[in-house]
Design goal:
With about 425 residues, the protein is an alpha/beta fold. The chain folds into two domains: about 10-45 and about 300-434, Aspartate Aminotransferase, domain 1 (Alpha-Beta Complex), CATH 3.90.1150; about 70-295, 3-Layer(aba) Sandwich (Aspartate Aminotransferase, domain 2). It contains 14 helices and 14 strands. The chain has helices at about 15-30, 50-60, 75-90, 105-115, 130-140, 160-165, 190-200, 225-230, 265-280, 285-295, 300-320, 360-370, 375-390, 415-434; strands at about 35, 100, 120-125, 145-150, 155, 170-180, 205-210, 235-240, 255-260, 330, 340-345, 390, 395, 405-410. The chain has an eight-stranded mixed sheet, sandwiched between helices. The chain has a four-stranded antiparallel sheet with strand order 10-11-14-13. A two-stranded parallel sheet has the order 1-12. A hairpin with a 5-residue loop joins strand 4 (about 145-150) and strand 5 (about 155). The longest helix has 23 residues, at about 300-320. It is globular, with a radius of gyration of 22 Å. The protein starts with 15 loop residues before the first helix and ends with a helix.
């Protein structure tokens, strides 16, 4: 074309969590049975939506109002409910006008990063959930700026590295926190959140905190919502219903703006996000309408607790299966439903393989791993998929140089789950010895 039409940050938009599916589907066509452990969709892994929840949605579908537009910020009654719940916790106080609904947090992330000045950077964790790191990098047209999550310390943020990354990068305007964390499954103690808020206050930054898994915490750990510790620092908390209810297909999430009136520049930035949403008119009405009714239903808490109990049990099964594999570093997940596994530095090479019986599958895997630039952990992931049918995501896809993979805890059948992780442990041992 006579004019370059490609956005300067287009090359930073990647999503290996979905890309690996394309490889898996090709292998399926060649006769491979696949266990999809790559994507955080409870429904795809067999989660059954209870009848009482479906009845709430069905009743709402019968109401004409759920077919119309809602206010740009979202259904007022739902925003009033959320604001009251946040205020009840006793931290920073908000009102319904401080809440904006989006078509899933992906939509919110796109606008939050997309409407920053291009030279203003948000420091993201490494490893980092791909949607965040890609969106931040794309808006700046450069690689993401990161702070370390330490696999030798329960995947907690390295606060010294975080502060140095701010001190020596004057373009940093904000800090991203994901708590509980995706991809690591870490849950941050309150003192860590307080320390990050203190750093943000000292350097005059704002905070973005993805709390979509906030109510999925286990193994005796605890944390605090950002609203409890934020004080007078400008911030955005991100929440949604895709993982907790769970209703990922609803594409329903929202942001809570804290201290939006404390800084005129931050207020103008938030207004730009709202204006962008106004151009779209609003987000989908139906899931907003049913949200308060679902979470206030007398059976909701028991339903959520049953799921959390299963994730806790499976997190321990997964940890016990993998913790003794030589050459890897494994932390027990304590929140969300993910585990990140690291290989020790130098453990992976470009010569290791796993035996693959299906000739056509082997041929395709060998062609994939020979592609220029294929990372050594992606090589392992391809061989694991081809040899065992287990589909995971390379850890280097999450804005990190650490080599490993992310796997979910979403399989409902305990027998299948144990087999997957036992097979994975055996494959890792065999691969590292090859």
């Amino acid at each position: 074309m006579r004019t370059d039409i490609v956005h300067i940050g287009a090359g930073e938009l990647t999503y290996e969590i979905r890309n690996i599916v394309n490889v898996g589907l090709k292998l399926q066509k060649l006769g491979l049975n696949t266990n999809w452990e790559n994507i955080g969709d409870p429904i795809a892994k067999g989660e059954k939506i209870p009848l009482w929840m479906k009845e709430i949605v069905s009743d709402a579908v019968m109401q004409d109002a759920t077919y119309g537009y809602c206010p740009t910020k979202g259904v007022l009654a739902t925003r009033e409910f959320i604001a009251a719940e946040t205020n009840r916790r006793g931290g920073v106080q908000i009102d319904p006008e401080d809440i904006i609904f989006f078509n899933g947090l992906g939509d919110a992330i796109s606008k939050i990063f997309g409407f920053l000045r291009r030279t203003a950077r948000v420091l993201v964790p490494t490893p980092s959930y791909t949607t965040h790191s890609s969106a931040e990098a794309a808006h700046a047209g450069d690689k993401p700026l990161t702070y370390i999550l330490d696999p030798n310390h329960l995947w907690y943020p390295d606060l010294d590295d975080l502060e140095k990354s701010i001190k020596y990068n004057p373009a940093v305007a904000g800090i991203l926190i994901i708590n509980p964390d995706n991809p690591t499954g870490a849950v941050y103690p309150t003192y860590i959140l307080e320390a990050i808020v203190e750093i943000a206050k000292r350097y005059d930054l704002f905070i973005i905190c993805d709390e979509v898994y906030h109510n999925i915490v286990y193994n005796g750990t605890s944390t605090s919502p950002l609203s409890d510790v934020i004080g007078d620092v400008p911030a955005i908390a991100m929440r949604g219903i895709s993982k907790e209810m769970p209703w990922p297909g609803s594409r329903c999430g929202w942001i809570e703006v804290y201290n939006g009136d404390k800084d005129p520049m931050f207020a103008k930035y938030i207004q730009s996000i709202l204006n962008a949403k106004m151009v779209e008119v609003c987000s989908t009405t139906l899931p907003q309408t049913v949200y308060p009714k679902v979470v206030q239903h007398p059976k909701y808490q028991g339903y959520l607790e049953e799921r959390i109990s299963r994730y806790e049990k499976f997190s321990n099964i997964a940890y016990d299966c993998l913790k003794d594999v030589k050459g890897v570093l494994v932390n027990r997940p304590n929140g969300a439903f993910y585990m990140s596994v690291c290989f020790e530095l130098g453990a992976l090479t470009h010569n290791q393989t796993l035996p693959i019986d299906n000739v056509e599958v082997k041929k395709l895997v060998e062609s994939l791993v020979s592609a220029p630039g294929t990372s050594v952990d992606k090589r392992f992931v391809y061989y694991l998929l081809g040899a065992t049918g287990i589909c995971v995501v390379p850890l280097t896809s999450f804005a990190t140089e650490l080599q490993g993979f992310r796997v979910t805890l979403l399989e409902r059948d305990e027998g299948v789950f144990r087999k997957v992780f036992t097979t994975m442990a055996e494959a890792m041992t065999q691969y590292l010895a090859s």
